Amino acid sequence: MKSESLESLETRLHDLGDFIRDQRRNARLSLRKLSELAGISNPYLSQIERGLRKPSAEILQGIARGLRISAETLYVRAGILDEEGDPPDLVAAVLRDPTLTERQKQVLVEIYRSFQQGDREDEAG
Fold first, then answer.
1. What are the boundaries of each domain within the chain?
2. What is the mean pLDDT of the chain?
3. Tens digits of per-residue pLDDT, 79-91?
């Protein structure tokens, strides 16, 4: 008899695989094309889609990149991230980004904060 946690893991892996397959089909990508885009082998992607393998965060990131969806979406489905966790600290992420200039960081943070303020005003009024 399987333990509850093992059954939960198997269910999660099957759900993850189904989700990836659905996303791949919606994007009109063949298994071979997505495996190329993700940088993984065709058989390994097939096993992930069938729920037979537990992919690492790095593999999920490659699959997400190939599907053009957020890696976080796959991380949550794989159980790597909590769905109900704290909201991401967007300001800190922007400020840490080495690809942005200081001016770009400043502008992005200002825009983000203006949206937050606008949402608060909408809720209050």
1. 4-78, 90-124
2. 85
3. 877 665 555 678 7
CA angle, residues 79, 59, 39, in degrees to nearest 5: 160
Residue-wise pLDDT for 97-110, tens only, equals: 889 898 998 899 88
* Count of beta carbons in the 10 Å neighbourhood of residue 71: 18
For domain 4-78, give the fold.
434 Repressor (Amino-terminal Domain) (1.10.260)
C-beta of residue 35 within 8 angstroms of C-beta of residue 44: yes
Compute CA distances 77 → 6, 13, 40, 73, 82, whole Å.
Answer: 16, 8, 19, 6, 9
Residue 95: Cβ within 10 Å count: 14
